[in-house]
Amino acid sequence: MGLNIRFTRLKIVEQIAIVLFFAVVIPMTISGIIINNINQQSVRLQLKEAATLIANMVSDEVDVFEASASNELNQIVMTLDYFNNDSAKQNYLNKIQKNSDIYKKIFIINSEDEFSKIYNECINHQETALKAMLKDGRYLIAIFDINVLREQIFSPLKDDKRQINILTYDGKIITSHNYNEKLYQQSITQLPRKLVDEDAVVFGKIKNQPFVYLKKEKPKVLVVVNTPHDLTKKTIDYGRTKIILSVLIASLTVLFIVGLYTYYLYINIRQLFKAIIAISKGNYRRRIRLLSSVFTPYEIIFLSFEFNRMVKQINKSYSKLKKTNKELKELNEFRSNMIDTVSHELRTPLTSIQGYTSRLLRQDIEIDKETQQKSLKVIKKQAERLKRMIEDLLVIPDIEDSRLNVIMDTISIPEVIDDAILLVKNSSSKVIVNNVSKEISQIYADRDRFEQVVINLIENAVKYGIDDTDITINAYEEENRVIIEVNNKYPLISREKLKTLFDKFTRIDDKTTRTTRGTGLGLFIVKGLVEAMGGEVRLYSTEEEGFTVKVFLDKANQE
Fold this sequence. Notes:
By secondary structure, the protein is of the alpha+beta class. It contains 13 helices and 15 strands. It has helices at 12-80, 86-99, 112-124, 146-154, 181-190, 229-239, 242-280, 298-361, 369-400, 413-424, 447-464, 495-500, 522-532, and strands at 103-109, 127-133, 139-145, 163-167, 173-177, 201-203, 211-215, 222-226, 409-411, 432-434, 443-445, 471-478, 481-488, 536-542, 546-554. The chain has a five-stranded antiparallel beta sheet, with helices on both faces. The protein has a five-stranded mixed beta sheet with strand order 10-12-13-15-14. It has a three-stranded antiparallel beta sheet with strand order 1-3-2, with helices on both faces. Strand 7 (211-215) and strand 8 (222-226) form a beta hairpin. The longest helix has 69 residues, at 12-80. It starts with 11 loop residues before the first helix and ends in a 5-residue tail after the last strand.
């Protein structure tokens, strides 16, 4: 014995009280979660963007310093070309060094290896060096005080609390801003093993304390921006001001829920009014469609249920009768078309078979063998035609119910088309031109069904083609499909008429102008068979080309 649990619907007043409770408690809870999430996400995003921006700014300042210093060295090199001996050149360099606040030392060396040694020594002595090549292959070396470099690069960032380090590739510090040994070691140990060139990259294991590095190729230095814990804490405290915004969102949520519920009730009540008006005007199919949920009041649910039950009883008989009349009408039309078409088309082959059979059975005359063979050939031909018409009729239900059985396999198109032409070529004096190349790709389809498609298309072309014109068969490839095309000469067919040719018992010529035999099922069956094999059929009609049917089928897998 099962439990019979019935849900008791609440009254409107009770539901409003519950809604207000959930509209206050739930939004406030959600607001707390949103506030915390917004604060954390905002901090992370701002810190990452700021650190990335500073890394790019320092990189640009390094480029400016390097470009400016290199430009001055190149000017000095050009001036040195006017001196004839090394003594004069050195005197000139000594004068520049004496009068300059930038260069600690400026001199000429013989090789680039010497510059590497000098550069490494400069790093150890809080200095840096640049070089410029002379015309004779030697190098002009300028040594700068690291304080000059620091002043020029970090002057825009005096008030920033982040630690900024400019390093060599092997980890030696060239210069730094707000240096802190603990923070420096923390960032160095977390640097990725493989660094990306010329792009600021965020790294680090602590989400709220991002580190950024930027690897430069010219000059070969590494810019590392470290975010200290104190700055992170300050930024988080600043983000807490967003609590006000979250509280405001929570308040608006309360108003929104109450307003939504009120609107919800209004929609349901309005549905009741619309249904009553519709019934009063004789529309017995109209039902009340409520937005039903646990919030829908009991009174409205009860009223809509009783109203719909009343309408259902009135409309049930009417709908059933209407449906039965429609089915009978469709069945009657189908039966009429079937009887008219089939009786007309079956009468001719049966009459021929009956006539030639009676002739062969006559005992009062003697029939020679040649006449017997001709008569038997006619009987055989008419029997095959009768068989094809019966097969067409039998395949219709399978096509309509989408239960057509196909056995897919790899098929040679030229072979099937040759067999199809042999079956129909003697039924007309029209010439069938087969342009299908033996090299055309194979398709993946049901061989018997595909042959039936080709036979129907050729027979259709033979029936309706203009006298003394050729019927052409072409095939070509397009991406992963093969297109088989059957064309015959025929006057232009309107688009409206083309759209109906795939319907059952539809022919190009009507009953008053009909000059050809046929059931009007050819293209309907072609479409059904092709689609069952995963293909597509299209019809075309132009004054120049005549009537064309194109069949699109998938290529077989080519390994």
